[in-house]
Amino acid sequence: MFKKSDFIKKHYTTGDIAKILGKKPQTIIKLDRDGKLPFKRTSSSRRIMFKEDLFAYLESYGLLIDDGKFDKRDIIYARVSSNDQKLKGDLDRQVVSVLEFASNLSIINPLILKEVGSGLNDNRKQIQKLIFMIMDDQVNRIFINYKDRLTRFGYNYLETVCKLKNVEIIVVNDDESKKDAQEEMVEDMISLIASFSGKLYGMRSRNKKKSIELIESIPEIE
């Protein structure tokens, strides 16, 4: 039995079909001459079989399973922490690195998601979009340059969700530049401190306001 998602090329040669059907190339040529295989001819008279014709042939013998993966997409996700990094081209370099790595993996209906934001921020627009797509069974594989591109903390949680949804996360590079990693960590920590400081200041302001209101509400004793 064959799955539709096993076939990623647009057309197949005589040698390809021989391997798929487990026959010798000479046998495939004879079957074609007998009109038993749906080959087409190129301008140079070379035999090729288009994927749709191969599907029809396999289906006619009950050898094809539609596993639905053609409705899914491969996602390339890239993130930097600051606009300075984006202006330096770091964001685009991540995408190029992934595309070069995946050039032989036949990316399926690819979607590129890029954003600027702290890895500590779990409410980023594109990461939220990605999570919704995963939960809606729209994602086949996720390509990232480094693990922390998805998230600075909680990567294992995302990975578990992906496994439950049969989504593969492919990390292109294991070793991120030490300097870049340190710079991003500092930026993330500054962002985290600023966030906590803002919340703490807000809490103090609200408490101060409540205290003033409480004092003002106490009637004066003459």
Q: What tags apply to this protein structure?
A:
about 220 residues, alpha/beta, 8 helices, Multidrug-efflux Transporter Regulator, Chain: A, Domain 2, four-stranded parallel sheet
Short summary:
With 222 residues, the chain is α/β, with parallel strands linked by helices. The protein is 47% helix and 16% strand.
How many angstroms does the end-to-end distance come to? 94 Å
Strand content: 15-25%
- CATH T-level fold name of the largest domain: Rossmann fold
Sheet with the most strands, sense and barrel status:
4 strands, parallel
Name the CATH architecture of the largest domain.
3-Layer(aba) Sandwich
Number of strands: 9
Give an overview in words.
It contains eight helices and nine strands. With 222 residues, the chain is of the alpha/beta class. It has two domains: 2-65, Multidrug-efflux Transporter Regulator, Chain: A, Domain 2; 72-171, Rossmann fold (3-Layer(aba) Sandwich). The strands form three sheets. Strands 7-6-8-9 form a four-stranded parallel beta sheet, with helices on both faces. The protein has a three-stranded antiparallel beta sheet with strand order 2-4-3. The protein has a two-stranded parallel sheet with strand order 1-5. Strand 3 (40-41) and strand 4 (47-50) form a beta hairpin. The mean pLDDT is 83.
Give the topology, please:
Blueprint: E1 2-3, E2 11-12, H1 14-21, H2 25-33, E3 40-41, E4 47-50, H3 51-60, E5 64-65, E6 73-80, H4 83-87, H5 90-101, E7 111-116, H6 125-135, E8 139-144, H7 155-164, E9 168-171, H8 178-217
Helix pairs in contact: 1-2
